[in-house]
Amino acid sequence: VFQKWVNREISNFDYLIQLNTMAGRTYNDLAQYPVFPWILQDYTSEELDLNNPAVFRDLSKPIGVVNEKNAKTVKEKYISFFRYENFEDPLGMIDKFHYGTHYSNAAGVMHYLIRVEPFTTLHIQLQSGRFDCADRQFHSIPATWQALMDNPNDVKELIPEFFYFPEFLENQNGFNLGQLQMSKEVVNDVVLPKWAHSPEDFIYKHRKALESEYVSAHLHEWIDLIFGYKQRGPAAVEALNVFY
C-alpha cells in the first residue's frame, strides 16, 4: 500500500483510510474512529487558492501547536504538568504529557456528526437527555478552526466525512440546536468558509485540497505524528506530541 501511495497509484484519501484500518481504527467504534488531518488554515478568504502554500496547515506539527503562540504553554505544561492539570498522582504512575485530551475520541466524533443519526441520539444520551448548549456545538467551520488556534487544550483533528459527506453539514432533520449566547444566532446548518458556496462545494474543494501537490508532499509529516515514530518516546516529546 505504501509503495502504491508513493507511486501515486492511490489517492491521499485512500491511503489515509487504509492506514486507519491497519491501525485498528474503524467506523464501528467511536472510540477508535478513523482520524484525518486538518489540512487548511484559510477559512476566511473569498476564494481558496490551492497553489498558495500559505492556505495550508503545517502538517509537521500537532494541531495543538500549529499556532506557534501555544507552543510555550504546551512545553511548560509538560515540564510542570501536575501544577497545570491539578493531577493527583501520589505514586508517580502517570507519565508526563502535553495534552490531557485526545485528537480523536467518541465525544469528538459525535460533536462533528451531531446533525445525523445515530450520532444525534448518541450525543443526547451523552448529554443526559438533551442537546449540549449551542455555544459548545459544532456550528461553524471557521469558528472551530479559530477555537483550535486560540486554545492549546482543543486538539481535535477531523473525521473522514469532511472529505466526502456533505449531508453532515446540514440540519436536514430540523433539530432544535438552540442559539448562541452572544449573537443570539440560531444554530442550524454548519456555517461554511466564505470560499464554499454550499456543503457540496465545501466537500469538493476540501477533497481537492487533500489531493493537492502541497498535501501530497507533506502528508507523511502528519502520518509520523499520528501513526508513526513521533507517537511515543523522545521523538514525541521533541515534537510536542505526547498525549495523556
TrEMBL record:
Alphabetized InterPro entries for the sequence: BEACH_dom, BEACH_dom_sf, BEACH_Domain
**MF GO annotations:** protein kinase binding
Keywords noted in UniProt = WD repeat
Q: Where is the BEACH domain?
A: 1-244
Q: Which Gene3D superfamilies match?
A: BEACH domain (1.10.1540.10)
Q: What cellular-component terms does GO give this entry?
A: cytosol; membrane
What GO biological process terms does the UniProt entry carry, in alphabetical order?
Answer: intracellular protein localization
The record's section on PANTHER family has:
BEIGE/BEACH-RELATED, NEUROBEACHIN-LIKE PROTEIN 1
Name under which the protein is recorded: NBEL1 protein
Q: Which organism is it from?
A: Sterrhoptilus dennistouni
